[in-house]
């Protein structure tokens, strides 16, 4: 074993002319379509009353989708490294956006693809431990424009994002929609796909949106005007129920955005407009696969790395805690081998499950050290141990003691705030990320516990906004104990097995990385 520490749609076909496939192989093509900072609940399939993601909703209903899918941690780099390694942040050693060079694993997704003869491409945002040069083809984009600026429009749009809309822009973006990242990313992705002829391919289509800067061009700016939006379920009045880290984050946001509460409806509208633009581009991408005959030989995964407050608790972006708006992510699987389900899959799944699932789909062995579980049997409509997916865990925090309001360190000294610049703040900072939290979701219940023994217990069906904490309520003592046992089981399960024992000891695991097999259900 080479332990290493890294230190440096069928329904669409009838409406399109289908030509012979250019790259039909024995192994399926894999396309991961990832957004950055997308809440799971702002879509029609989950009951949101506006047409935010109509195409993804329709694709989900014709294939398989999960309404209990979670990130491993509500921060970009920890989440993305886990997707590529199948390992949780405590195992990858990447618990913050500042630990990219510490990623620890045996073999990641990109290596498995290459071993199996795949061509690989990234179009969009990276922000994982894999390097751009590790892909056969890479065209990078970030939140502030195209990494390699090919045209004058690229340069002008990047200047606008960096100078005028660094955090947010409250008017319609003064550029045509064709200048926006998602449009250009899909154009580049389809152009690369058209060149693939002899080998299966993996393509990571990674949208930097709807992450801030919250800006959007017409016609999307007007689609979700503030007066048409349903109200949020919570507000700043609920912050005291969520704890000091939420209150500190609110202070930071107000220091950087003095009119935030007044601007929130427009920022929410921008966020929804960005999502609708992405949805239209996902439709264009998949229709392109149908038109070239590649759809039937491709597996598509649509997901996000983590969520966004989008106005809940009077906050934007992310940072404090592990509420559902930050931790629950969209997840849709479509294409070859996916057996359609009429309802959302009744399973608790994780971003860490993506890599082992893909291993199963292409006939590769799941590497040692992977902690995620393969979803392939359930995606195929085969039997699987229900107990294996009865709950899911999320990790948060880089450890140490909590930083509090009493610290002499200021936002400006720490680097979390750039004064005199609107919306120039870093929500992932020493205050919001210090300490340790663990979250477990099981059925309608959610438990959160931190390194000081402070607990939260919520019934998500009755209290979806998590403001009625039932922890230490005698009426729910039995449920609290059940959830604590579930959390402890996960904590023990996710102890890093690397390095596995040497010499005589035999390390036991099964082909799908299940912990609970059929006889344990």
From TrEMBL:
Pfam families assigned to the protein according to its UniProt record, in alphabetical order: Sulfatase (PF00884)
Keywords of the record: Hydrolase, Metal-binding, Signal
Any single Gene Ontology cellular-component annotation: cytoplasm
Keyword NADP included in the entry's annotation: no
One annotated GO molecular function: iduronate-2-sulfatase activity
Region forming the signal peptide: 1-23
InterPro entries per the UniProt record, alphabetical: Alkaline_phosphatase_core_sf (IPR017850), Sulfatase_N (IPR000917)
PTM text: The conversion to 3-oxoalanine (also known as C-formylglycine, FGly), of a serine or cysteine residue in prokaryotes and of a cysteine residue in eukaryotes, is critical for catalytic activity.
Residue ranges constituting the Sulfatase N-terminal domain according to the UniProt record: 28-363
Residues the record lists as 3-oxoalanine (Ser) modifications: 76
UniProt name for this protein: Sulfatase-like hydrolase/transferase
Species this chain originates from: Jilunia laotingensis
Taxonomic classification: Bacteria, Pseudomonadati, Bacteroidota, Bacteroidia, Bacteroidales
């Amino acid at each position: 074993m080479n332990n290493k520490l890294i230190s440096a749609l069928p329904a669409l076909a009838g409406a399109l002319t289908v030509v012979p496939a250019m790259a039909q192989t024995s192994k399926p093509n894999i396309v991961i379509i990832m957004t950055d900072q997308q809440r799971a609940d702002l879509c029609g399939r989950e009951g949101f009353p506006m047409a935010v993601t109509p195409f993804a909703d329709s694709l989900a209903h014709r294939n398989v989708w999960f309404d209990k899918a979670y990130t491993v941690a509500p921060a970009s780099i920890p989440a993305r490294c886990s997707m590529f390694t199948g390992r949780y942040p405590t195992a990858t050693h990447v618990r913050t956006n500042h630990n990219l060079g510490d990623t620890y694993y045996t073999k990641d997704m990109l290596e498995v693809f290459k071993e199996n003869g795949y061509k690989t491409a990234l179009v969009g945002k990276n922000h994982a431990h894999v390097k751009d040069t590790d892909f056969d083809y890479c065209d990078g984009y970030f939140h502030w424009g195209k990494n390699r600026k090919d045209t004058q429009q690229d340069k002008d749009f990047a200047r606008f994002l960096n100078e005028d809309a660094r955090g947010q822009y409250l008017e319609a973006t003064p550029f045509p929609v064709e200048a926006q990242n998602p449009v250009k990313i899909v154009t580049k992705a389809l152009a690369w796909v058209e060149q693939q002829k002899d080998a299966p391919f993996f393509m990571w289509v990674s949208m930097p949106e709807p992450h801030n800067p919250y800006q959007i061009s017409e016609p999307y700016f007007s689609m979700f005007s503030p007066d048409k939006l349903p109200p949020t379920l919570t507000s700043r009045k609920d912050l005291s129920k969520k704890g000091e880290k939420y209150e500190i984050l609110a202070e930071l946001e107000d220091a950087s955005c003095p009119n935030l509460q007044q601007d929130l409806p427009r920022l929410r509208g921008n966020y929804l407009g960005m999502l609708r633009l992405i949805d239209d581009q996902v439709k264009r991408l998949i229709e392109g696969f149908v038109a070239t005959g590649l759809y039937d030989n491709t597996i598509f995964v649509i997901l996000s790395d983590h969520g966004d407050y989008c106005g809940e608790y009077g906050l934007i972006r992310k940072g404090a805690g592990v509420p559902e708006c930050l931790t629950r992510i969209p997840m849709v699987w479509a294409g070859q081998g996916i057996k359609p389900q009429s309802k959302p899959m009744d399973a608790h799944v994780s971003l860490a499950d993506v890599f082992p699932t893909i291993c199963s789909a292409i006939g590769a062995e799941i590497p040692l050290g992977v902690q995620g579980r393969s979803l392939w049997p359930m995606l195929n409509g085969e039997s699987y141990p229900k107990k294996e997916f009865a709950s899911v865990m999320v990790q948060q925090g880089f450890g140490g003691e909590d930083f509090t309001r009493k610290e002499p360190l200021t936002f400006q000294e720490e680097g979390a705030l750039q004064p005199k610049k609107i919306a120039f703040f870093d929500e992932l900072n020493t205050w919001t990320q210090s300490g340790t939290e663990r979250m477990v979701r099981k059925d309608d219940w959610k438990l959160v516990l931190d390194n000081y023994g402070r607990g939260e217990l919520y019934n998500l069906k009755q209290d979806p906004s998590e403001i009625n904490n039932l922890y230490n309520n005698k009426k729910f003592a039995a449920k609290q104990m059940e959830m604590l046992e579930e959390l402890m089981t996960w904590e023990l399960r996710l102890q890093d097995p690397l390095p596995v024992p040497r010499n005589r000891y035999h390390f036991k695991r099964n082909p799908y990385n299940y912990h609970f097999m059929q006889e344990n259900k």
